Amino acid sequence: xxxxxxxxxxxxxxxxxxxxxxxxxxxxxxxxxxxxxxxxxxxxxxxxx
Length: 49
Prior knowledge:
three-stranded antiparallel β-sheet; mainly beta
């Protein structure tokens, strides 16, 4: 027998943006404001000759 699973009426929305310099995550929860998380990618050390 198959069980029934309903989708939530107010889903959490997430958007992910990945780039070379930084990564951003936008989170939207129903009833709350949007949240933004930014992670900067460390740049590799440059060797001077």
